[in-house]
Amino acid sequence: MPPTVFWPEDVRASGFCYGWMAPALCVAGVIPETSVQEAERVLAAANGTAQWTRLAEACGGTPTLLGECTFERGKRHPSLELSGIEDCTIIYYHRHAAASLRFYSLETLEPSEEAAPAQKKRNAAYAASLAHDFTRRPAAPGGMNDVVINQVCFSSLCSRY
Hints:
The chain is an alpha/beta fold. The chain has one domain. The chain is 30% helix and 21% strand. It has helices at 36-47, 50-59, 117-130, 146-158; strands spanning 4-8, 15-20, 25-31, 64-70, 79-82, 89-93. Strands 5-4-2-3-1-6 form a six-stranded mixed beta sheet. A hairpin with an 8-residue loop joins strand 4 and strand 5.
């Protein structure tokens, strides 16, 4: 099965894509430089900023160059040349502006004040039963987890190199 690449739906520029390789390939943006050396210089400067340094822990490290991408006129998907990857599946994600305070999460958030006591009791019983569920498969490597969610959420902050 080819690896999955999480790609921001608003990115349509050709250049060198950067982001994270683990736990899944998550593209944060594209550096429109003409050479790998220039793109690496720009990314190294961005990785040295205080903002990106603070994000590194939540995102599993600092963004790195992932490869080169090319958009052809009239096409929605990029042609990707990623190091060591021949074929991939692209999943597009929407980057919310940080000022909107909208973020992705794997956790369901319930308004505690509005939930009826009976509903709270059912939710607690369900959560306790999940701890003993032997039918649930373990998470696949390279799949969606909290680190990938953080990468997707914070990619809009990393898009301004």
